[in-house]
Amino acid sequence: MSQNIRLSIPGMKCNGCVSAIEKALSDDIGVTSATVELETKTASIETDTELPVLLAALKNAGFEATEMAADHRDASA
Known about the structure:
This protein is α+β, with helices and mostly antiparallel strands. It has one domain (about 5-65): 2-Layer Sandwich (Alpha-Beta Plaits). The chain has helices at about 15-25, 50-60, and strands spanning about 5-10, 30-35, 40-45, 65. The protein is globular.
């Protein structure tokens, strides 16, 4: 079953990081779509993959990530 997961990725610093994260979250691991935002250091992911698999893929790419609560709102919004 497809789910939407939002991750905080504080180590993201540049567009190269965005590209690396997008590559790590490829459809090879069951990700249907991923939107990575440098400004907010977040990724919104639609996937059939379990969270630990996503976190491991990001860790392998050099990034630590944590799941954000579904009702999390950006403080600047």
